[in-house]
Amino acid sequence: MFAYVVKRLISGVLVVTLVSIAIFLLFWYGPSSPAQPICDRETSNRCSAAKLEIYERTLGYDNPVYEEYGKYVKGIFVGRTLTIASNEYDCSAPCLGLSFRTKQPVKEELVSRIPATFSIAIGGAFLYLLFGVPIGVAAARRRGTVADKALVSSFLFISSIPYYLFALLTWLYLTITFEVPFFSDTGYFPITQDGPFKWFSGLFLAWVALGIFGCTQYTRFTRGAMVEALSEDYIRTAKAKGLPTRTIVYRHGLRAALVPVVTIFGIDFGTLLAGTIFTERIFEVQGIGWWSLEAVQGRDLPVVQATALFSAVVLIISNLLVDVVYSVLDPRVRLS
Amino acid sequence: MTSVPMTQSSAADRDAHDGPYLQVEDLKVTFPTQDGPVTAVQGLTYSVEKGKTLGIVGESGSGKSVSSMAVMGLHDAKSAQISGSIRVGGTEVVGLSESKMRDLRGNSMAMIFQDALAALHPFYKIGGQLEEAYLVHHSSASKRDARRKAIEMLDRVGIPQPDRRVDDFPHQFSGGMRQRAMIAMGLINDPSLLIADEPTTALDVTVQAQILDLLQDLQREFNSAVIIITHDLGVIAEMADDVLVMYAGRCVEYGTTKQILTAPEMPYTWGLLSSIPDVSASTDARLIPIPGNPPSLLRPPSGCSFHPRCVHSDKVPGDLCSTQLPELLPASSGTAHLKRCHLADPVGVYQSEVLPEIAPELVDELSEETR
């Protein structure tokens, strides 16, 4: 197990390296000079060829690409001093570059935005698991009844709405039309500054949107896995032993049905942690997702680079965790 | 309704209540489906005494498993309609409440299934699954008692190093050991009735013999009533005292193992006997399969269910076979032997047409006897 985790971590580092190279090359060989966005910004869109040349030179874009990539990687481990035009900026390790817009180290902003994104992800995932799994179990037990069919078809309807539209409608109805008290002032308010109530009420609608949408999906996953598990031979054995129905359904059925659900959840949750662009933008939560959206719109290359790298790291870690948890849940799986 | 005379029983064999431990009378199991009701079992009557073994034989879909699942109450009440009477140790279980049924299941009666790999939960240790079966019927027992009992049972069914293997998962056991563990789980509460549903089907031949021996030993030890469901007449010859041959949900022949194997009177039983490979026969001896396929239970054939596949129906005058269901009547070889067939002289047909095909050497013996 330990050897397996180490092996997976090493291959994870390799993947992150490859991702970082790919991102670096994409910007380097993009359609315009990587210095173009900052030159445009600094000169209020009057970036002459001479000025562009200055930015390219100070940012090192006239050097060979491998040399600059080397500096970038070195900066991550030991920090570096970056020069933009005539100003020097100190960027301590792990240095992910300077934001073109704020001239602040990207890492600091990234760290400051993690709590907002993680708050959304954890709260939303908590809600959809809390409701999705039990509803799925209940539907599987009443499989084929009117209640089951009504539930499955209405949930299928909800989950076929595109998520951004669903989240937008949730926000529109709950804050504008009904002006739900306390919760209409959405956004991220740090629990340490504004207290738990403000934190909770600011994120509540985002959680609800994410929770309802995720719940419809997890109900279907759980129901499917549960229907399959309950038709297995070992369920008949459990019944033949004289076990009570609750034990049969939960200890024998759900235990087996959880394995595929946990697998999907691991991947899903990793995606949420990497940033929920729609949720954050619609509910005005200053998280990583919204930040990356702004960075793309503002052509803030170092920020885009950093958020892409961050997603890669989060997804690799969550995949590794899924595999480890899987081997714990299913004794037949041996990690090697 | 036809009634089956009880097989001979000595007074010593009797339990606290009168009569055989399991008594099934006029059992009928119907499943409503989208294409209409399917009657998987009907008019089934049999009984098993403690210490005795009843073998139920028949093809897939003949109602063997369905009838035994009905005894265990394992059918979903919403999808199966059960009528008739099933008495286990004097208790009527048809219509019994679920909680009372639960007390019987795994306790007074237990069932072991074919394919133990699928029938054991893949995520729980063997020991845990045995302990669970014990604890559910011994609420005052401690976890440690249950574990000791589990190890004891694993030892009893011949698992080597039971105190270590008790912590293995099912996938770490071999096929034969899994079936042994399954048997241990079935017997852990010392049931008076054990139903073994094709317990050796998924095993290779040498292991099959070991498992059958084990079942016989355990039956002698626990003095339980045993039903063994199989399509293998070899298993029947080895294990059973009485045999029930099922076809299309009905009993077509019933008698002692000797009667069924040496003097069968129903063409379907002849067909089963003809399709057994014989190791001692010459290699060019023919296996004679039963022509055709098992009938659809949704639209069962008129008259005798077997008539479309029966090669002897031309010996019955008129179209009796295709219009009238034969009654289950006493056969010529003895009072306990019942058969469901219109043939006027089944013994003659068997000796002159069937026996020469399947066991020519027996014909000679027979003719010597008569001479």
TrEMBL record, chain A:
Keyword Cell membrane: yes
UniProt keyword terms in alphabetical order: Cell membrane, Membrane, Transmembrane, Transmembrane helix, Transport
Membrane topology of the entry: Multi-pass membrane protein
Gene3D superfamilies according to UniProt: MetI-like
Source organism superkingdom: Bacteria
Residue ranges of every copy of the ABC transmembrane type-1 domain listed in the record: 114-326
Coiled-coil portions: none
InterPro entries named among the record's database cross-references: BPD_transp_1_N, MetI-like, MetI-like_sf
Spans through the membrane: 9-29, 116-139, 151-176, 196-216, 256-278, 308-329
Record's keyword annotation contains Nucleotidyltransferase: no
Name of the molecule in the record: ABC transporter permease
Top-level taxonomy: Bacteria, Bacillati, Actinomycetota, Actinomycetes, Propionibacteriales
